[in-house]
Amino acid sequence: MKKYLCGWSLAFLIVFSASAYAAPTGHEIMQIQKERHQAKDEEKRSEMHLIDRRGKKKVRDMVFYSFQGADKLNKAMLKFKSPADIRGVGVLTWGRASGDDDQWLYLPRARKLKRIVAGARKNKFMGTDLAFEDLRPENLDIHNYTLLREEENEGKHYFVIESTPSTPKEKKGSTYSKRIFWIRSDIYFPEKIEFLDKRGRLSKRSVMEELVNVSGEMWRAQRVTVENLLRKHKTITLTKSYQLDQGLEESFFFTQRVLKKPHTRD
């Protein structure tokens, strides 16, 4: 009888231990990822390399600003500093939880401020491998996230998560049918994203490398490679510096008026 009870006790412990670990859901993982790595405001200065299928390279300098506003309104501005023919070109994004984002592109040579309508967010941004929709902050309210599996690679553990648009508007407006994220489980940082087009083809891949711990639990990639697998073209962004939570002013910095200025801060 004693032996019988011990056997049942051991079985109970095994079952209990297995059930005690429940992997977080895909949405929970993405929520943790966002909360850990989103600063109140951020400034980063980068060098962008555009490389075509023949290996020909174009180099651009740019500055990027972001701000986490009230009521889940996130604002971001990207401006090119060089070369001279695109200096001052910029895009301003106001990202809303509803997905009804606002985007404006400023072309200084034409002195033209252009609103990016929803149907144009599929378009490439200034010859890069980024679409205008890629410049928006990740919006957890208009996507579904499914944990597909967990993987080990080179001693690191990853959550592999599938993201699909969850609203009719996002399904219609996005160039992607789904995206696949590889999130490192120790720091909850996305190291790779694969993009599938509406035909289900793997069209683009983004790889984040040279990770640095910039503050607390926040990490950043110093090297990001976005490769268009269909047209054999790459955009490599090398970040030189980060400044986080320095007190950028939302009402002053993230406006159409500032977007049209020739300089931000040098």
Q: Which descriptors would you attach to this protein?
A:
266 residues; alpha+beta; outer membrane lipoprotein receptor (LolB), chain A; 13-stranded antiparallel beta sheet; 13 strands; 47% strand; globular
Model description:
The chain is of the alpha+beta class and 266 residues long. Helices cover 17% and strands 47% of the residues. It has one domain (25-259): Clam (outer membrane lipoprotein receptor (LolB), chain A). It has helices at 2-20, 26-37, 168-173, 250-253, 256-259, and strands spanning 41-51, 57-68, 74-82, 90-95, 102-107, 112-115, 143-153, 156-165, 176-184, 189-197, 202-215, 218-228, 233-244. A hairpin with a 7-residue loop joins strand 3 (74-82) and strand 4 (90-95). It is globular and about 55 Å long. The relative contact order is 0.18. Residues 1-6 and 10-19 have low confidence and may be disordered.
Number of self-contained structural domains: 1
CATH architecture: Clam
What is the first-to-last residue Cα distance? 80 Å
The mean pLDDT is 89
Q: Point out poorly predicted stretches.
A: 1-6, 10-19
> Order of strands across the widest beta sheet?
6-5-4-3-2-1-13-12-11-10-9-8-7
Q: Helical proportion?
A: 10-25%
Instruction: Report the principal-axis shape.
Output: globular
- What's the main sheet like? 13 strands, antiparallel
The CATH H-level homologous superfamily:
Lipoprotein localisation LolA/LolB/LppX
- Topology pattern, helix = H, strand = E: HHEEEEEEEEHEEEEEHH
**What's the helix count?**
5
- The count of DSSP E runs of length 2 or more, i.e. the number of strands, is 13
Sheet-strand content, in percent, reads over 45%
- Which structural class best describes the helix and strand composition? alpha+beta
CATH topology: outer membrane lipoprotein receptor (LolB), chain A
Overall radius of gyration: 21 Å
